[in-house]
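[INFO] parsing input record for Alpha/beta hydrolase
[DEBUG] input buffer:
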Amino acid sequence: MRYRIALTSALAVVLLGALGALAGPGWDPVPMTATIDVETPDTTIGQSQGTEPIGTYDVVTSVVTVRLNGASVEAQISEPVGARGLRPGVVFVHGAGTGKFTRAFRTQAHALASAGVVTMVPNKRLDTYTTRHRDYVAMANDYLRSVELLRGLPGVDPDRVGVFGESEGCWIVPVMAADNPRVAFTILTAAPVVPPRQQAAFAVDSYLRNTGVPVEVLRAIPRTVGMELPGGGFGYIDFDVEPFQQRMRQPVLIVYGTGDAAMPTVQGALQIIDDVSTAGNPDWTVRYYKGADHGIKVDGKVDRDFLRDMAAWIQGLPATGHADPRVAGAEPHQRFLASPVARPRWYAEGDMLVALLVTIGISLLVAPVTWLVRRLRGHRTPALSEGVPVPLAVMSVSAASSFALFVVYLLVVANLAQNYRTNALVVQGGWLLVRLLGLISVVAGVVLAYRVLDGRRRRHVRASRTVGGRWCLIGSLTGSAMLLTLLAYWNVFPALL
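[DEBUG] output buffer:
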């Protein structure tokens, strides 16, 4: 009997593993083979006549209101005290998040102002910005209102006002700059370059590999990032910024930190260079800052060399737009390409998964609800035959526990990855526990199947003795089978393919 259970359980696990592998899509990122030639580790951008270093001026701030279409936002202006003549200006475009001038770009805006550049940090418009809906073209039009306001301020040279974008803002800045001479220059910091869906897959892969997760967890990337999320929306996730970059004719400063695992640091710079060259634009400069993170920060502080170089580049334009060295700083490393993400098949799209989870929940609740109703009505006769309740309960509970732990495991690992931390006990031990619970569910299901079959063959006894027992059996079997299939889809069972 034990050998029969062991052999059948092993076969069931192999079949579930094969089901998960065949359900697709797979995950096999393309290695990054292209390189970018860094000319020198010195990021300094040559000083030209009329440029002033950071700290030259005291800085005064004021708050203005920017009128948008159907709304308004406040913006903070930072100005150099006592600076003579018309000054260049910069409007900062936020990355993901709420984007308040009280918290965002404080160091960058103050540093540039102290070097004689008038800066403007508007609050992000939030009434049209949600997790489910973002319109980068509309956002670009909103930020252009800030550009126009800054161009009209006293002491600002309207022909020398540019825009600074960081992360998600680098999908907005090219829209603002394309075919638009009112934008004098652009600074793209930690630019994703590829559509958000590709960027998300690249970042998740990079973070998870750094955390040391099993390869089976990596295979879940396209099955999550590639799906259409429940309830629709999220159209922006496939926004392609490349056509706008190919119409940028302004000088562009491209900035990455070599400690930024979330961005395609080599691919991004090469793509922007290629795109602006398509526009006939020779004015590009690339800088890599050693160990700097996504915000060009080292140990939580904005890199001072970055601030120095940015101030010199802005003030030195147009000469600094194409001055040597074109590419400088630390050597970047990018292991894989940020590539298009395969879509899951119809049965694994977001709405279908939600429907499946609801069905599973209802199915698994049948047994405890039936038991409770029978108890309240005073029924003491067993609803199931002897030997059936224990493996049935173990199968259901262990399958549900495996899936619940799988979700918790992903959340914990994501937290570790985002904070650049590793924990072998959590990463490896947690995955082993998820698999162990799934295996227990399979074994319990096999034991249940043999007990039901043996009861019918040898003793002519049905597994259920009452109508309620029949519903308990059907609900638990249906819910557990669906859960095991779902666990197989998420690669919990080892695949031999």
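[INFO] Residues 424-458 form the longest helix (35 residues).
[INFO] shutting down worker
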